[in-house]
Automatic annotation (TrEMBL):
Pfam families, sorted: AraC_binding, HTH_18
InterPro entries named among the record's database cross-references: AraC-bd, Homeodomain-like_sf, HTH-like, HTH_AraC, HTH_AraC-typ_CS, RmlC-like_jellyroll, Tscrpt_reg_AraC-type_HTH
Protein name: AraC family transcriptional regulator
Gene Ontology molecular functions: DNA-binding transcription factor activity; sequence-specific DNA binding
Source species of the chain: Gracilibacillus dipsosauri
The organism's place on the tree of life at top rank: Bacteria
HTH araC/xylS-type domain span: 188-286
Length: 290
């Protein structure tokens, strides 16, 4: 069951807010690998599955929360015999109160911490689960009943959720489980290997050799778990890293292309534009002038 605002209008793309309440999807209906310019908070009400986020595989089960910052590759694989039921909040940083009254907290600090530490899963203690579920139910009521100021109310509740999760994480460090898992031991290894060697030759045969499996088996399992082929995954990881370097360094585009393993600058330009919609130079100029 979906609330309003699920489909974002063009005018809202810079400041999106969307909410899905207790939705279940079969594996064949899950979106392929994807990433957004906005953030997600996903709460698992019931079911089991495997969630690929960035370069790690996680088990999904009741009480899990997944925090997915913007520009993070992810793909869910629900267990077809025990489908995942989840609620999801999609929101832009632009909608979150930006001012930090003290140095110890800001509403986006949790997102920033998750992005930095690359720990995307929090397993909520049983006693805390009804609190999170009540927040989500409140957002659902606001958006479906369409009261005066319902979107504003939903945003206020989203701020409460961010505060609650930040407090809970700080207070109960030992109780919160950031559990990683993989049905194929070599997959987590190879995902970490790719992350550390983006500038190297990462052809399918080379990766299969590193994983000690056949190229055919490697390709099939990789796509099954991540939702994309190995080459598409590598290209997206390289482009995401390139975006960071373009914004956080003064390196030339040619140097960045070489660092990311591209055999020529034109090849880098074409690939970057395919995934980002603009050239590296245009991206750097636009983001720095924003």
């Amino acid at each position: 069951m979906m609330s309003s605002l699920q489909d974002m209008k063009p005018l809202e793309e810079l400041f999106p807010y969307s909410f899905v309440y207790k939705n279940s999807k079969a594996p064949q209906n899950e979106r392929p690998d994807h990433m957004h310019h906005f953030h997600e908070i996903i709460y698992v009400h019931n079911g089991n599955g495997v969630f690929f986020i960035d370069n790690t595989l996680y088990e999904m089960s009741k009480g899990d929360i997944f925090i997915i910052p913007n520009d993070t590759l992810h793909h869910a694989r629900p267990d077809k015999h025990n489908l995942i039921t989840s609620s999801v909040i999609f929101f832009s940083s632009g909608l979150i109160y930006p001012i930090s009254i003290d140095d110890s907290f800001s509403y986006l600090s949790l997102i920033e911490k998750v992005k930095k530490e690359k720990e995307f899963k929090i397993q909520i203690p049983i006693k805390e689960q009804p609190i999170l579920e009540q927040y989500l139910l409140q957002i659902h009521h606001e958006l479906t009943e369409d009261k005066l100021g319902s979107i504003h109310a939903s945003l206020l509740i989203t701020h409460q959720i961010l505060l609650h999760l930040s407090r809970m994480k700080l207070k109960n460090k030992d109780e919160l489980i950031h559990a990683k898992t993989s049905p194929h031991d070599w997959m987590n290894y190879i995902l970490a290997y790719i992350e550390k060697n983006l500038e190297q030759n990462l052809s399918l045969p080379a990766l299969a050799k590193e994983a000690l499996v056949s190229p055919a088996h490697f390709s099939r399992i990789f796509k099954q778990i991540t939702g994309m082929g190995p080459i598409a995954y590598i290209n997206k990881k390289r482009i995401l890293k390139s975006k960071e370097l373009l914004l956080q360094s003064s390196l030339t585009i040619t140097v960045i292309a070489e660092m990311m393993g591209y055999d020529s600058t034109p090849h880098f330009y074409r690939t970057f534009k395919k995934y980002v919609g603009m050239t590296p130079a245009q991206f750097r100029k636009k983001e720095r002038n924003a």
